[in-house]
Amino acid sequence: VQLQAYGGGLVQAGGSLRLSCTASGRTLSTYGMGWFRQAPGNEREFVAGISWSGGSTLYADSIKGRFTISRDNAKNTVYLQMNSLKPEDTAVYYCAADTTGWGTTVKKYDFWGQGTLVTVSS
């Protein structure tokens, strides 16, 4: 499975961005999906996850209430809507697929996209 994340860019604090993650080679409809991020000098951290059906979601405390993860299995795409962005949200954002469920740890996920950079200016 090849994942591609896109939609990053430069935005002012308080602004919004929507990230998308698509796949080639296989449908994502049976995979749990997650978004992670990694800022310079930091470890990759969990941001949000969604079950294969979209019926269950989970968020990191740092973004709860500001970000929303969703998926459209018909379009083979997972989204991360990011509102009220803060400078500390600046990072490379990665989408990932979990073939056996979904979770909050990097090790749980089997396939990763290349990342898309989000920069939030103050």
Q: How many H/I helices?
A: 0
C-alpha termini separation? 37 Å
**Main β-sheet, in a few words?**
7 strands, mixed
Compressed to H and E, one letter per element, the order equals: EEEEEEEEEEE
User: What is the radius of gyration?
Assistant: 13 Å
| Helix residue percentage | under 10%
Mean pLDDT: 95
What share of the residues does DSSP label as strand, in percent? over 45%
Question: Brief overview, please?
Answer:
With 122 residues, the protein is mostly beta strands. Helices cover 0% and strands 50% of the residues.
Fold blueprint:
Elements: E1 2-6, E2 9-12, E3 17-24, E4 32-38, E5 45-50, E6 57-59, E7 67-72, E8 77-82, E9 91-98, E10 111-112, E11 116-121
Parallel strand pairs: 2-11
Antiparallel strand pairs: 1-3, 3-8, 4-5, 4-9, 5-6, 7-8, 9-10, 9-11
